[in-house]
Design goal:
There is one protein chain. α3 packs parallel to α6 and α9 packs parallel to α10. It contains eleven helices and no strands. The relative contact order is 0.14. The protein has one domain: MetI-like (MetI-like fold). The chain is mainly α. It starts with a helix and ends with a helix.
């Protein structure tokens, strides 16, 4: 267990570095990410442009840093929104129970039969636009798993003695919901939120790679992969390689951290 925690700390530190560099990308980026220089197109990594330049002479490192901020911003906003909807829906279903719970779960199961990426793909194709709009679409379509986890936790917790005692002493319902049920459900919610965050990064990258995500004029890790498709044909491997590595390492960090917390939670239940 101690080894797993140390390993998780290493991945957490790496994730913190990635997030920190993207947050302060405006200060750390050596060049303006959209500044074009046609005299330096397709330059391989060198001392001036550490990760090379693209087909318009734009610095790849600067675009990765600024693009990471866009990708992570979309992921954070969508996860916050989906967590709020999922907690509200799942909490209501689990606490009320009975016919209300049965109806709400049938609706949820209907949504779960359709891959969320397909729903996002359809909505984004119709409402293609800004970064905020994409984050909102991902948020309102990514709450299904959270709702199911929260419902299960509320059903489990509301039968426990401390909740029954609170009802016996006529504790206000809002206090039971927030202080007893929601607070004790936070470990499970935290784990599912971490995995949702990784999924949100993957969704942004997938949609932008298909050309219907973030507008091409705005740098993001997904749009960089989208524009790098043709660059591979001329041998400019660095344009797609480095954004791909950032995506891979970031998702890997999140997944390892989430798996560690999940195993820790399972042990505490046992």
């Amino acid at each position: 267990m101690r080894k797993q925690r140390k390993r998780a700390f290493v991945w957490l530190a790496l994730l913190a570095i990635i997030v920190g560099t993207t947050l302060f990308s405006s200060l750390l980026a050596p060049f303006e990410p959209n500044a074009m220089d046609m005299n330096h197109i397709y330059e391989a990594p060198n001392l001036t442009h550490l990760l090379g330049t693209d087909q318009l002479g734009r610095d790849v490192l600067s675009r990765i840093l600024v693009g990471g901020k866009v990708t992570l911003f979309i992921a954070v906003v969508s996860v916050v929104l989906s967590s709020f909807i999922g907690i509200l829906y799942g909490g209501l279903s689990g606490y009320v129970g009975g016919a209300v719970d049965a109806i709400m779960m049938r609706i949820l199961e209907a949504f779960l039969t359709i891959p969320s990426l397909i729903i996002v793909l359809a909505l984004q194709a119709i409402m293609q636009g800004s970064v905020w709009r994409m984050a909102m679409i991902m948020g309102i379509t990514g709450w299904f798993v959270t709702a199911r986890i929260v419902r299960s936790e509320f059903i489990r917790l509301k039968e426990m003695e401390f909740v029954q005692m609170a009802k016996m002493f006529r504790t206000p319902i809002w206090k039971i919901l927030f202080s007893h049920l929601l607070r004790n459900s936070m470990p499970a919610i935290f784990v599912v939120t971490i995995f949702n965050f990784a999924g949100a990064i993957f969704t942004e990258v997938s949609l932008s790679f298909l050309g219907i995500g973030v507008p091409p004029a705005i740098p993001s890790w997904g749009t960089m992969l989208y524009t790098a498709q043709n660059d591979l044909l001329v041998g400019a491997w660095w344009i797609g390689l480095f954004p791909g590595l950032m995506i891979f390492v970031t998702i890997l960090c999140v997944q390892v951290i989430g798996s560690t917390f999940k195993k820790g939670g399972e042990r505490s239940h046992v």
